[in-house]
Amino acid sequence: QVQLVESGGGLVQAGGSLRLSCAASGRTFSSYAMGWFRQAPGKEREFAAAISWNGGNTYYADSVKGRFTISRDNAKNTVYLQMNSLKPEDTAVYYCAVRMGRLVTTTHQTYDYWGQGTQVTVSS
Fold this sequence. Notes:
Helix content: under 10%
Radius of gyration: 13 Å
Structural class: mainly beta
Order of helices and strands: EEEEEEEEEEE
Number of strands: 11
Shape: globular
Number of helices: 0
C-alpha cells in the first residue's frame, strides 16, 4: 500500500522559514517525479514545486520561485520543500504527491498518489 506522509508544517511569522518533508512508503519512488501542491481555504489546489526522478530538474510556481527549494533523497524515499521568506499568502495546506512516470508535470490531476497534507500558517 502506497503511503505519503508529510511533516514539518506549523505557524511561522512572515519572513520566517519552514522545511517540509514527505516520506514515501509502500514502494520505491526513485524512478518517479514528485511534487508539492498547496490549497488555501476557498481556493483551488495549486502547484508549488516539482522535481524529476533523479533531482536533476526542478520546477517552481512563479509565486514561490526564489524562495522555495524542492529536493529529494531517493535513498530515504523522501522529498523536501525548504520554504524561506514566507509570506501570509503562503498560508495553505501543503500536499506532496507522486506521479508514476518520469515526466514532470505541474497539474495536480496528473499525480497518482497524495499525502494527507500539512498545515502551514504564516502570520503577518
